[in-house]
Amino acid sequence: MYQINFKRKAGKELLKLPSQAVQEISSSIDALAENPRPDGSKKLKGSNESLWRIRVGDYRVIYAIEDKIKIISVRRIAHRKDIYR
């Protein structure tokens, strides 16, 4: 089982979202602790880090997986039109 950490920016972004979106995103992030690479997740290209993303409705969660120490670091949470800017 992986431990989940939120970067400060991701935490702030989560608090700005509508409450229903927060509930859906929170449950999806909690599920990452069991399976950090669920169906539909995608490894992002163009970064030196190993970043992944999951889709939760119109929102995207960007995170890094550190397999050696079993930590998932949530980097960004935003609407799909804003996330990759």
Essential attributes:
single chain, 85 residues, alpha+beta, YaeB-like fold, 5-stranded mixed beta sheet, 2 helices, 34% strand, globular
| Strands side by side in the biggest sheet | 1-5-4-3-2
CATH superfamily: RelE-like
Q: Helix proportion of residues, in percent?
A: 25-40%
Would you identify the CATH architecture? 2-Layer Sandwich
SSE sequence, one letter per element: EHHEEEE
Q: Please count the beta strands (DSSP E, at least 2 residues each).
A: 5
Q: So how many helices?
A: 2
Q: First CA to last CA: what distance? A: 31 Å
Provide the CATH top-level class.
Answer: Alpha Beta
Topology, please?
Elements: E1 3-6, H1 8-15, H2 19-32, E2 42-43, E3 51-56, E4 59-66, E5 71-79
Parallel strand pairs: 1-5
Antiparallel strand pairs: 2-3, 3-4, 4-5
In short:
The protein has 85 residues and is α+β, with helices and mostly antiparallel strands. The chain is 26% helix and 34% strand.
Explain this structure to me?
This protein has 85 residues and is of the alpha+beta class. It has helices at 8-15, 19-32, and strands spanning 3-6, 42-43, 51-56, 59-66, 71-79. Helices cover 26% and strands 34% of the residues. The mean pLDDT is 94.
